[in-house]
Write a structure and sequence with these properties.
Chain lengths: 163, 103
């Protein structure tokens, strides 16, 4: 990928990401907000591609844009609040001030820190490397994650069961 | 112009702050869950950008991002189950009306 093409791709994806994230927050129609959330996730998958994270881009589309998007749209359908919209609460102005300050802090830190950048080229294929790391060094967190997912499934079923 | 680590970090910070603002200011519980997902995605961008520019061959950030996705999936499942349960008993998902435990 040439530098110019890379920069153009990054800026387009960044604008789509930020624009659709703003749409989630600003739109009053909850269902449209959910569709913009799926668009945001797809654009983030594109950002992952520009970071040479091919496996995670695929996982992002499968899990976030697919599973979590559909799950949240089900949530909107089953709670039937989409016609009443998603108004802002009483905390709107304090939240705006707090997140603004946080954003300024983040940008200041990102621009003023000397990151220990590496000049090595990134891996072309990450899937094999991820499998290697996941099943050797990080095998215990991997197993704990499976227990967490099982607990989440059982917990969700126990919560919504008719009694 | 060159795209570097800072660009990704600022993109991640902007997305995180938009998600945080939504999570703090919205009243619909489902929209709050959506905003939390956006925040988790912003963190994933930062993790993978650090992995790409600081340790390009170790993939540490990728592993972390996979665990963040796992926790996000679990969180959405349990969060929606809680919202459904509240909706069934109180017929609302407005977080300002769900004040049973507030004093």
């Amino acid at each position: 990928m040439t530098d110019l093409g890379f920069a153009i791709a990054f800026w387009i994806l960044a604008v789509v990401c930020v624009g659709s994230a703003l749409a989630i927050v600003l739109l009053r129609n909850v269902f449209r907000a959910a569709l913009f959330m799926v668009l945001c996730f797809v654009a983030i998958a594109g950002v992952f591609v520009t970071l040479n994270a091919d496996f995670l881009a695929a996982v992002q589309i499968l899990i976030y844009a697919g599973a979590i998007g559909i799950l949240l749209i089900f949530g909107i359908m089953l709670t039937r609040n989409s016609e009443r919209g998603s108004p802002s609460g009483r905390l709107r102005i304090p939240a705006l001030v707090a997140t603004g300050l946080l954003l300024v802090t983040f940008v200041y830190i990102a621009l003023n820190t000397t990151w220990p950048l590496s000049s090595q080229p990134p891996l072309e294929q990450t899937t094999a490397g991820i499998a290697e790391a996941l099943f050797n060094r990080y095998v215990l967190p991997f197993e704990v994650a499976s227990v967490l997912l099982l607990a989440a499934i059982i917990g969700a079923i126990a919560l919504v069961r008719e009694r | 112009m060159n795209i570097g680590l800072e660009h990704y970090l600022i993109l991640s910070a902007v997305l995180f702050c938009i998600g945080l603002y939504g999570a703090l200011s919205k009243r619909n519980a489902v929209v709050i869950l959506m905003c939390i997902e956006v925040m988790l995605n912003a963190v994933n961008i930062a993790l993978i950008a650090f992995s790409r520019y600081v340790v390009p061959t170790m993939l540490t950030g990728h592993i972390f991002a996979i665990f963040v996705m796992t926790v996000a999936a679990a969180e959405v499942a349990v969060g929606l189950a809680i919202i459904f349960t509240i909706y069934r008993s109180r017929q609302t998902v407005d977080v300002e009306q769900i004040d049973l435990m507030k004093w």
